[in-house]
Specification:
Helix content: 40-55%
Strand content: 5-15%
Enzyme class: oxidoreductase
GO biological process, one term: fatty acid biosynthetic process
Bound molecules: NADP nicotinamide-adenine-dinucleotide phosphate
Structural class: alpha/beta
Number of helices: 9
Subunit structure: Homotetramer.
Radius of gyration: 17 Å
Largest sheet: 7 strands, parallel
Number of strands: 7
Keywords: Fatty acid biosynthesis, Fatty acid metabolism, Lipid biosynthesis, Lipid metabolism, NADP, Oxidoreductase, Steroid metabolism
EC number: 1.1.1.100
Shape: globular
Length: about 250
């Protein structure tokens, strides 16, 4: 039995759920008994592997290809998820990209693409999910923001804007849906060991580590545990919040 309670019978859709933090969330939810739809855009094999690992935990798991920045693909993804799962109780907006550069070198495309995936993608998914959850009068929407939204980060003007935007979106939607049994929250991870942070040069990593009171980098499972809590019945009275999972980095 999991610490935060059972998710048996719950149906979850996790964007970018095939690898990194999304994969850890899919596995955490599956271990708690939830059936999962795992979205991916490029990594079909990783998504398939994650689904197979979830199935080993005794739940149903499906993969769905969709670029979350495209409205038609998001609509089709929700149709497919509904056809396979019957309902959606939990949406995790996890899909995200970085295209880092100092402002003076930041191209229009790199600005637009990061905003399109990280912010528009979440908006498109939230709109689909809200429609279903309003009818159900229950649901959980959890979005992956970042400590960078709270503190800023040189070289990430585009990424920080997208992640700060997610916080405003989360709080606004939380107000819209609170009376209907739907909670909307954000997670703000610090420095979590995944492919996204593997790309950071060693010297910069060492410097970042010095700013983490916990004295270690975070693991995807650290974030997944927080997502599980927010998805659980135990978090029914928590909405519009930003939960930092950062070893004390941004307190
Ligand atoms: P990651 O390892 O780079 O994985 C990114 C995921 O997003 C992949 O599953 C990828 O799918 C998916 N994705 C990217 N573009 C997509 C699109 N257009 N449509 C659908 N899926 C798309 O990143 P991560 O470290 O696990 O990060 C997950 C989330 O946490 C992101 O939102 C990130 O910003 C946030 N976060 C991460 C950290 C950290 O330190 N790692 C810190 C704070 C916040 P494919 O593999 O199919 O391309």
């Amino acid at each position: 039995m999991s610490v935060f309670g059972d998710l048996t019978g719950k149906k979850a859709l996790i964007t970018g759920g095939g690898r990194g933090i999304g994969r850890a969330i899919a596995l955490e939810f599956a271990a708690a008994g939830a059936d999962v739809a795992i979205n991916y855009v490029g990594s079909a094999e990783e998504a398939q592997d994650t689904a197979a690992e979830c199935e080993k935990l005794g739940v149903q798991a499906f993969i769905i290809s969709a670029d979350v920045s495209k409205a038609d693909e998001v609509a089709a993804m929700f149709e497919q998820a509904l056809a396979q799962l019957g309902r959606i109780d939990i949406l995790v907006n996890n899909a995200g990209i970085t295209r880092d550069a100092l402002l003076l070198r930041l191209s229009d495309d790199d600005y637009d693409n990061v905003l399109a995936v990280n912010l528009r993608g979440a908006f498109l998914c939230m709109r689909q999910a809200a429609k279903l959850m309003l009818k159900q009068r229950s649901g959980r929407i959890i979005s992956l923001s970042s400590v960078v939204a709270l503190r800023g980060n040189a070289g990430q003007v585009n990424y920080a804007a997208s992640k700060a935007g997610l916080i405003g979106m989360t709080k606004s939607l939380a107000r819209e849906l609170a009376g209907r049994g739907v909670t909307v929250n954000a997670l703000a991870p610090g420095f979590i060991q995944t492919a996204m942070t593997d790309a950071i040069p060693e010297a910069a990593k060492t410097q970042m580590l010095a700013g983490i009171p916990a004295g270690r980098l975070g693991q995807p499972e650290d974030v997944a545990a927080a997502a599980h809590f927010l998805a659980s019945d135990a978090a029914a009275y928590i909405t519009g919040q930003v939960l930092r999972v950062d070893g004390g980095m941004a307190m």
